[in-house]
Design brief:
Blueprint lengths: L1 H30 L1 H13 L3 H15 L2 E2 L4 E2 L4 E2 L5 E2 L4 E2 L4 E2 L2 E3 L4 E2 L4 E2 L25 E3 L4 E2 L4 E2 L8 E2 L4 E2 L7 E4 L4 E5 H8 L1 H4 L9
Helix pairs in contact: 1-2, 1-3, 2-3
Length: about 210
């Protein structure tokens, strides 16, 4: 029954945002998607409560590369690029800032997290030209499935599957699958597979059996 109710709410939300989606498409046709999208993302980020979550999700289903069912994008979170993608049952907390980022399934992103496209978005080599006018490089960034990014972390590189990024950490270099990384800059302190082995002796010692004689 709960899943049916959610399906109905999603359908109603799509109907409610359809005029805004149409206006966004007309706006994008005039000035381009990359220029039009951020303003609409800022607008929908301000919708409060559960209704806001459903309306925001409906808009992003129509405007992002993809936004899968059961994804939750909380109040104040802004996407800066329409090529971003949000996976199934992914949760994004309040007041996050997300660029051209591919987010996998079952990802948990706490509040006030910034995920940007690399550290070279602004050129700094020339002193005779203001930094704002120098050409930078935008690097695609992905967050693997079942990864948890803690409160106020800043991520500027790929993060693998099944990772944990500590609160307040600064990710400057790619993080491999299963890693637990913390600090400024973030460094790997543990492999999640080690935790699994330590808590399950049968995994650590495959020959051991729970059968009794």
């Amino acid at each position: 029954m709960k899943s049916i109710a959610k399906t109905i709410l999603r359908s109603l939300s799509l109907l409610c945002v359809s005029p805004a989606v149409l206006l966004y498409m007309l706006h994008a046709a005039v000035i381009g998607r990359n220029q039009a999208f951020p303003g609409w993302s800022q607008l929908f980020s301000l919708l409060p409560g559960t209704l806001g979550i459903y309306l925001r999700h409906a808009f992003y289903r129509c405007s992002l590369k993809y936004c899968q069912p059961d994804a939750c994008i909380s109040f104040g979170t802004i996407f800066s690029h329409p090529n971003a993608a949000v996976g199934q049952t992914t949760y994004i907390g309040n007041f996050c800032s997300i660029g051209d980022v591919q987010i996998g399934d079952d990802v948990l992103i706490a509040s006030h997290v910034s995920i940007m496209n690399g550290c070279n978005q602004h050129g700094i080599n020339r002193l005779d030209v203001p930094v704002r006018e120098q050409i930078g490089t935008y690097e695609p960034v992905s967050i693997g499935c079942d990864t948890w990014i803690g409160e106020r972390a800043t991520v500027s590189a790929n993060v693998g599957k099944h990772c944990v990024i500590g609160a307040g950490s600064l990710v400057l270099h790619p993080i491999p699958d299963y890693a637990i990384a913390v600090g400024v800059p973030a460094s790997i302190i543990r492999d999640r597979r080690e935790l699994s082995i330590n808590r399950n002796p049968a995994v650590q010692h495959p020959e051991r059996t729970t059968e009794t004689v």
